[in-house]
Every structure is written in structure tokens, then in C-alpha cells.
Amino acid sequence: MNTIIVDFLEKALVSGYVSSVLVPSRGPDNTFPWTLVSDVSALAMAEPFPPVMSVQGAKALASFTQSMTEGKLLAVMRPCEARAAVELSKLEQIDLDNIILFTMDCPGAVPLKEYRRNTDIEPDISIPETIRPLCRQCTEFTSAGDLCLAMHGGLHAVLPLTPAGQELLDSLGMIAEPDTSAWMEWASSLRAEREAARTENRKSLKEAYSGLQGLAEVFSGCISCRSCRTVCPICYCRLCFIDMKDRRCPASSHLEHSRSSGAARLTSGTLLFHIGRMAHMSLSCVSCGMCEDACPSDIPIGRLVSMVSAGTTDVFNYSAGSDPEDPLPLNTFKLEELHEYED
Q1: Please, which residues have CB within 8 angstroms of residue 169's CB and are 6 or more apart in sequence?
Q2: Domain count, the chain
Q3: Less CB within 10 Å around the terminal CB: N or C of the chain?
Q4: In whole angstroms, what is the distance from residue 143 CA to residue 182 CA?
Q5: Taking the model in full, what pTM does it have?
Q6: Residues 256 and 178 in one domain
Q7: How confident is the model at residue 41 (pLDDT cuts 50, 70, 90)?
Q8: pLDDT tens, residue by residue, 83-114
């Protein structure tokens, strides 16, 4: 898969249709930093599909493309990263006008902790144990962005998904694969398996952590490191609400709580942080799993946020990152909606 993608990137750069490429590259000590490549020779170190996700691609893209005006950029990403980029464009953190998103059939990613123990492990769709828990229940594993590399159902082809993707293929003299029926059948079959796994997983989560007591239990191991916020592509605020001075409880508040209940946990803002973060970003969550991978306490935060996101997006019939033209629900006013939630 990597060889096919690198060959395509070389053609795109040599043709002059794109002026640069954003792609992970091989770094020291089995790392895969995001690299902005403008010289074809630098693609020798490219690793378009690394086994792990250390930095979310949309976060890397947002770091320099908020107002990109020079040339076209071809960004190689996993489907969840491309969908996060679409959400960030709606939040005015990325300008996608001159950016082409290139994705692939994603087999998932190896958990970071597991990869540190064994750098020879590779993600494998057929072996769920090799990929992260959220990847095992991901139903959006292909057909995202402008172009998609299809590698299943007997296909080894780059498929255009948007006019921008088709334009790039045309400029390279490439013809789209006419018959994708077997590939679509493969995707449909895997999606059904993943949906069943997701349903079962969410049922277990609800049974184990329902209600305020359940939330307190699942987040009891939280050390307030905020790693989940740091790696999340949707958490882009320079100053988080939880870090504002007026959100910090004075000593008198802790003392009063201690006197009334006998003891007061000093990290009292833990639940406020997690519930507040989910309320802020759940509509744009793409279930990429970065938060869960980064958690040092092994809290299933990614699966919890994904479950909450499914509930909030269903209310508005919205799918995060699927359609660039679909407006953010909270940016849209409708006079007649949500009557079922009225008193």
C-alpha cells in the first residue's frame, strides 16, 4: 500500500499539479512525524500509512493551513483524519480550498502502548487484537476525502470521490476504475461486522458506567493531565474553559465541601472537564481514538466520547466530517425542530 501511495505522490509532484505533499515519514526510534514535502527525492522517507497514530493528521494540517493561498497541497490521511479536517474547516481552523485529501482503506492503528512494546506489529483488519478498540468498531474506514486508495475486493486503484479528486486524476492521465462492485461489497460486509461490534461495546459501556455514579467511577483514575484534550483535533481552543481563573474553586469551597461531606476530592473538576469537553466537541467527534490512545490511565475515553457523539449527532441527523457542505448543527437556526424535547 505504501509503495502505491508514494508512486502516486511522486507523479502528483512531478506533474506540478500540487506544489507540496503532507505525509508521515520515517523518523528516528520508530517514529512517524508529519512532513511537508516539496522535493520528490524527500519522498524516499515517506511512510504514508504508519502502524500508529501519534499525531492526528487534521491537527497537523491545521497547524499551517488556516489561510493557505500558495499552490495546492495533497494531504495523505486516514479516513478519520480527513473527516476531522472537514470539521475543522467548518470551524474555520483549516482552509480546504487548495487542499486535496487522499485517504485509503484503513485497517486501523496499533495502540501506542502496544507498539512501544513491539515495533514489529502491524495493524491487520482480520486480527482485531492488533488494532485499537475504537478501530475495531469503526464503520467509516474508507471513502473519505477527495481520493481513496481501494485495496480490497480485488481492487488496487485510486478512486475519485469529489470533483477535486477527479481533476487530479485527469491531470495525471489516470482513468478511474469502472467496476467497484466487489470493493463496495467488501466494505458493506466489514461495516456490518463493525456495527455489530460497536452495538455490543456500547451496550457494555452503558451497563457499566450509566448515571453520575458510573461516570464518577470510570473517571476515577483520571490524573487531570489533559492529554485527551491535547491530542484531540477538535479541541483547538487556545484557552480551555476549565483552565480559566474563574473556573477554579477557591480554598474556601474545598473546605466547605470537606466539612459538609467529611472528605473532598481535590481534583473536583475532573467530571466537569470531561462532561464539558464532550458537550463542546461531541457533534464534531470523528471517533479517531486519539484521546484514548493518549490516556495514561487507560480510561476508555474514546469509546465513551464516541458513544455520546452518536447520541448528539443523531438528534440533528448529522454525520461529522462526511459532507463539507453540511453546516454545523449549532451554527444553524431552524424555527421548527426538536419539539420532542419540549416540556
Answers
A1: 147, 158, 160, 175, 176
A2: 2
A3: C
A4: 14
A5: 0.91
A6: no
A7: very high
A8: 999 999 999 999 999 999 999 999 999 999 99
Helices (H), the chain: 2-15, 57-62, 79-90, 112-117, 133-136, 163-171, 181-209, 211-218, 227-231, 251-261, 270-281, 290-294, 301-315
In a shared domain, residues 122 and 260: no
Q: Which amino acid is at 279?
A: A
Is 215 found in the same domain as 188?
no
The C-alpha atoms of residue 154 and residue 186 are separated, in whole angstroms, by 10
Which residue from 37, 7, 33, 11 is spatially nearest to 22, judged by alpha carbons? Answer: 37
- 181: number of Cβ within 10 Å: 10
> Cα angle vertex 307, ends 304, 308, to 5°?
90
Band (pLDDT 50/70/90 cuts) for residue 308 is very high
Check residue 196 and give its pLDDT: 96
* DSSP letter, residue 162: S
